[in-house]
What does this fold into?
Amino acid sequence: MSIHVDPLRYLKPANLKSAPGDMRPVLIILHGERSQPGRVGNALGKLGFALDIRRPRFGDPLPETMDDHAGVVIFGGPMSANDPDHYIKREIDWIGVPLREQRPFFGICLGAQMMARHFGARVFTHPEGRTEVGYYPIRPTAAGLKVCPEWPGRVYQWHKEGFDVPADCELLAEGGDFPNQAIRYGNAFGVQFHPDITYAMMYRWCAHAAERLETSGMQSRAEHFAERAVYDYAEGIWLKNFLAHWLANDWSCVCGKQRQVDALVAG
It folds into this structure.
């Protein structure tokens, strides 16, 4: 599927913020019949946001505008952003709605790959057939540190495809076998990893994919749970901080903290 993107179609907001007290629901787009928004849903609930859950794969409509929503999260799934299915193409095209209206967008795993495809970038498998399933290290870029001064050292992954960074986007975090781990365009973000994972979700995923855990690059089931005990807390804190700033489209305090760090290092 070839997608042409007009670079003037979307305007990057200089300082656009959601209206004070904007508590419209957050649109949640899921791809499995029984999928749940996991820790993202829990964190949004604690922030006071209701969730409008839709599953376009099973016929749920997508809104023509974002007027009734504070933001949107597109989650992962076992399918590929390269698949020819109509609902995949429709979701990729629909991402233009929050981008044109400069509304908060957050893509997780498949959702990030859909964001990349929307901008015309490539989504592809590793040339050596590698996968990332388990906890893997990431490194924030200079641009990533401006958004979040503190990133988790390792994050939970479950994917066999990665994406190129679209020309109009910033790279926020890097990885190993799949070097592009987080991207940004205005207040639209995509992450290759799974900050949404809960203990129950991890248990189900590992149980359903027991045989696949022997694939190259995958960590064993025991490693998943052992490393969760070490690395999950930092990933959860990162997510809560990110979501609060993302929905407000206000990174001023984050940038202020980074300037303080820079001043201390320089001094």
Q: What stands out?
A: The CA atoms of residues 31 and 77 lie 6 Å apart. The domain at 26-266 is CATH 3.40.50.880 (Rossmann fold). Residues 221-248 form the longest helix (28 residues). The helical segments are 38-46, 86-94, 96-100, 110-118, 142-147, 199-208, 221-248, 252-266.
